[in-house]
Amino acid sequence: MLFKRKKENPQKVEPYGSRLMLEGPQYPIKGYDRLTIKVDLWEDGKQVLKGFIDWFGMYSKQQMKLLNCPQYRGLRGNKALLKVHMVAYSHAILANVEFKLKKCSKKNHTSTYNIHGEIFASNSKNIANIKNRDFKIMLFDKNDDESIQVGHGDLIPLMRSMIAVPLNTCLKFRAHLPLLSDEFLSCEIMACKDYGVDVKSMSGKYGKIEVAVTWESLRGHSLRTGKLNSEFDSD
Fold first, then answer.
1. Residue 90 pLDDT
2. b or e along 20-54 (b: 16 or more beta carbons within 10 Å of the residue's beta carbon)?
3. Strand partners, 157
4. To pair with 7 at 20 to 30 A between CA atoms, which of 58, 115, 184, 229?
């Protein structure tokens, strides 16, 4: 599942250029085989977009030249246009990511803090596009009125925790969490091994979060093909 919302919990989008907050994929996907994305999107009880987006894989020499390059697919309806941006990496490893609240100096009368803001990742393969939201891997995105409660030492709930990272590149994290800092926080971790754990910290004026990345080799995973869903449930 890439995106699923009940009508009681819709995502608010702008008329042009809004980004759906993806929750997956939850497992590695073969870049050289066919992939179909099922789309079923609704607004105010009315279906605005339905269909399929196909990725036919990197099975020819011509297509192999597009490895590590952003690819675009789209689906157009009468009232909506959905664009999918994807990249097939030639050599990648898995990063399982966790963010933990380690310190907060702001006064609070309870044992938890209301956290909002954004956390996203990128790698040195696409760092030139770091300011383009199309190439950010969004991990956490909450407005002030959507803040969640997190205690000292607790993990920050992420929309997704698994990231495919090209081997021997730099995995970069940036966070804007007003609870901890008025500025963006950042850290970098080299993706140079296919096992083990790396831990870094991002410190701000009011507090600190810990970033833990557990590396996994794709060789240990059963790569999948088939269908992924992107839908808004109107039931």
1. 78
2. beeebeeebbbbeeebebebbbbeeeeeebeeebe
3. none
4. 115
Beta-bridge partner residues of 113: 150
Q: What angle is formed at CA 85 by the lines to CA 195 and CA 170, rounded to 5 degrees? A: 35
Residue 230 CA to its chain's centroid (Å): 14
Closest by Cα among 175, 172, 96, 88 to 129 = 172
Burial class (CB in 10 A: 0-12, 13-18, 19+), 9: exposed
- Residue 68's pLDDT is 74
Q: What pTM does this model have?
A: 0.74
Q: Return residue ranges of the chain for CATH 2.60.40.
A: 92-219
211-223 pLDDT, tens digit per residue, is 999 998 876 554 4
Low-confidence ranges of the chain (pLDDT < 70): 15-17, 24, 26, 28, 31-32, 57-60, 107-110, 124-135, 219-235
Look at the alpha carbons of 105, 139, 83, 86 in this order and tell me if their dihedral is positive or negative. positive
CB atoms within 10 A of CB 190: 12
The whole-number pLDDT of residue 25 equals 72
Cα separation values, 123 from 22, 60, 167, 188, 195, Å: 18, 26, 10, 9, 18
Architecture of domain 92-219: Sandwich (2.60)
